[in-house]
Design goal:
seven-stranded parallel beta sheet, two-stranded parallel sheet, 13 helices
Length: about 325
């Protein structure tokens, strides 16, 4: 079977192409950048290019996008052109080419201000029923692209699954204060409790979605590591995260103390993957329990083998004095 991966030179695209090739799929890779996993150099904003890439393709994994780190370096119109118009090109040509399934990589960033409860409120228990309130052009354009996917399922019968992925990038955090307060490994370990997913699990979610797309038709799913928390933990979690984590993982403190790590004082949101696990049959492997066990085994690199193989891609060709990338 022939499949198309847009954004094939990117972090997720690279990982998907590697995995699909290992599974013996014929893979077409589209990206602006040349790479070992790119067969067509071009843009999703070029409809003729998209048409050429879809010849004989039955499944599309649409990962190409402008990301949050591009907000400060790209115009709102560029976000609209790539994330909305580019997705529309892909949907239109997918229908014309007889594509059977399209898996759209979205983001938990579409939730935006829905993830920031008032100071006295409990942490937000974020499910697919949480109403998105995008707070920047990135979130707005990804939400609009999700709506386009639903439209093309409803009007043309193109099976579309939207995956709202949480953080899986290996780069440092974009906030200077966070980088100064926590080592990068400490920060990412903490995030597995509520807002991070390993790249290998993100890939397996996309494959699971492709396998279930025709039966589901259209669906939107949160893709994040399985949280150990429950809704009952949300009030205490907001300002007493270490107490909740200590109750659930009595062994975590010793491993953290050995490394001079610390838990966040509070956690303001928790992404919940239950619907994705149930509907897609997805079985994520990497969570906070896994992280603590790796630390006990004296392993320093907490990433999956696939994440280590793909490595870091970055988001910009240049560097910035204020951090790994500028964010408005």
């Amino acid at each position: 079977m022939s499949v198309l991966v847009t954004g094939s030179a990117g972090h997720l695209g690279d990982a998907l192409v590697r995995t699909l090739k290992n599974l013996k799929y014929e893979v077409v890779g589209l990206d602006l950048l040349a790479s070992p996993f790119t067969t067509h150099i071009g843009s999703i904003t070029d409809r003729a290019c998209v048409e050429r890439c879809l010849d004989g393709v039955k499944v599309v994994f649409h990962t190409a996008t402008l990301h949050k780190p591009h907000v400060a370096t790209h115009s709102p119109q560029q976000f609209v052109d790539t994330n909305i118009s580019g997705t529309l090109n892909l949907l239109q040509e997918a229908v014309a080419a007889g594509v059977e399934r399209l898996i759209f990589t979205s983001t938990t960033s579409v939730f935006g201000d829905a993830l920031v409860p008032s100071p006295e409120a409990p942490a937000a228990w974020v499910t697919e029923d949480t109403r998105p309130i995008p707070k920047n052009i990135y979130g707005v354009t990804k939400a609009a692209a999700e709506d386009l996917c639903q439209l093309y399922y409803r009007n043309y019968g193109l099976a579309c699954i939207v995956l709202r992925t949480s953080r899986f990038f290996p780069e440092e955090d974009d906030h200077k204060g966070v980088r100064e307060a926590y080592t990068d490994s400490n920060l990412k370990a903490n995030e597995y409790l509520f807002r991070r997913v390993d790249l290998e699990d993100a890939v397996s979610a996309h494959l699971a979605a492709a396998g279930r797309a025709r039966d589901i038709g259209f669906g939107t799913y949160i893709i994040s590591a399985t949280t150990p928390f429950s809704p009952e933990d949300m009030p205490e979690l907001r300002n007493g995260a270490s107490r909740v984590v200590r109750r659930l993982f009595p062994d975590y403190e010793r491993e953290y103390e050995r490394r001079g790590w610390k838990m966040f004082p509070g956690i303001d949101r928790v992404y919940v993957n239950q619907r994705a696990c149930k509907d897609l049959g997805w079985q994520p492997r990497y969570d906070f329990r896994h992280i603590i066990d790796r630390l006990k085994a004296e392993e320093d690199d907490l990433r999956s083998p696939l994440a280590r193989l793909v490595g870091s891609k970055g988001y910009h060709a240049g560097t910035f004095s204020e951090g790994p990338y500028p964010v408005e």
